[in-house]
Amino acid sequence: MVWAITHHDTLQQLLTDPRVGKNPQLWDTFRQGLLPKGWPLLNFVTVPGMTTADGDDHRRLRGLVSQAFTPRRVSALQPGIERLTEQLLDGVALLDGEFDLREHFAYPLPMQVIGTLLGLPPKQQDELHELSDTLVSSSATPEAAVAAQTGLFALLAALVEAKRVEPGDDLTTDLIAAREDEDRLSEQELVGTLLLMLVAGHETTLNLITNAVRALLAHPEQLRQVLDGTYSWAAVVEETLRYDSPVGQFPLRYASEDIEVGGAGGVVIRRGEAMLASYGAVGRDGAHYPDADRFDLSRQPARHLSLGHGPHFCLGSGLARLEAETALRGLFERFPELRAADGPGPEPIASFVSNSVRELRVRVR
Fold first, then answer.
1. Cβ(361)–Cβ(343) under 8 Å?
2. What is the DSSP track for 133-199?
3. Beta-bridge mates of residue 276
4. Burial category of 225 from C-beta neighbours within 10 Å (exposed 0-12, middle 13-18, buried 19 and up)
5. Bridge-based pairing state of the strands 20-21 and 274-277
6. Burial class (CB in 10 A: 0-12, 13-18, 19+), 18
7. Looking at residue 148, what is its pLDDT?
């Protein structure tokens, strides 16, 4: 039994409920060995790291990584992100009229930023992106999903060994120091944390930028109001997070006790049952957001749950917002006449977790 949590207030309550945990040992189906071999989402519920830890273990792991995402450190990244944005836009300007904005702009920006933070060699970044795409895909065969997981762990383990030989000014080196000098991180937790940083650090921001551009091009009157200063780029990012969350669903959480949801007459999530945070559905909850299916930059306040809530709130939220705002501002200041290309609408990504489109064809004129 897995409960999909699709209402804003219910999810907000459960994300902070101490009876809800992330350790898969709380899940009867997992503990009893009932999951099918090659289940594509197995990595999400078992990889050692912050997303599968509770209590003291979660606080320990989060504390180690959080030092890389303090407001001061994120702010210090802004000049580099702005330079990278300009370089990518220089490349876009050389393309002949129509191009895939997702491939040529929305993807390389966050990938290079997280790659630099982790100390990833540039030649490995595309390979890691392809493997992570397979990992979050709902169309991958069980064999392909297992192969992608194995490949990702192998590449990240090789990165760890390379950084042990030649340390650098990067998060991987810092985590190795915590592992070896303080014994605060197991080898599995080290590689699992790097995997989380890699996937969360580029897939979500890639989708956020893509979804925001798509929404603005579909609402030209609101785009004009952003360009004339009526609304901020921050408002665009927050409304996109609500309206078209870059993460559709994120597995899983588990009840450590029976939990009654919805008060008297509601449902009871039984101890040992799993819950799925359906962020995409929650952002369109009409009971919480008036006219929820409308992209509306005047929505105040634009509160949402798309970056999580409670103990597992996204550590990289500040960096994701900075990257998205910088990318959108730079893109539309350089190309204010950017338009969607003619033809059929883009196809959704075949993913249970990731929410965006496979490509976003646009024209510069």
1. yes
2. HHHHBSSS-HHHHHHHHHHHHHHHHHHHHHHHHS--SSHHHHHHHHHHTS--S-HHHHHHHHHHHHH
3. 4
4. middle
5. unpaired
6. exposed
7. 83
Pairing of strands 250-255, 20-21: antiparallel
pLDDT reported for residue 53: 94
Is this structure's pTM higher than 0.85? yes
Sheet holding 274-277, edge to edge: 2-5, 274-277, 250-255, 20-21
Instruction: Write the DSSP symbol of residue 122.
Output: H
**What are the φ and ψ backbone dihedral angles of 76, each rounded to 5 degrees?**
-70, -20
**Domain map (residue ranges) of the chain:** 2-363
| Residue 336 tokens, joined | 């204010």
Angle (CA) 76 77 81, round 5°: 145
Q: Token pair for residue 142?
A: 């069980």
CATH of 2-363 among 3.40.190.10, 1.10.630.10, 1.10.540.10, 2.160.10.10: 1.10.630.10
Helix 142-165, helix 171-180: angle, nearest 10:
80
Decide: 255 and 270 in contact? Cβ < 8 Å: yes
Per-residue model confidence as pLDDT tens digits over 244-280: 999 999 999 999 999 999 765 679 999 999 999 999 9
With tokens 């075949």, the residue in question is: 350
The SS3 assignment for 209 reads helix
Given a cut of 80, is residue 103 above it in pLDDT? yes
Strands (E), the chain: 2-5, 20-21, 98-100, 250-255, 259-261, 267-269, 274-277, 339-340, 361-363
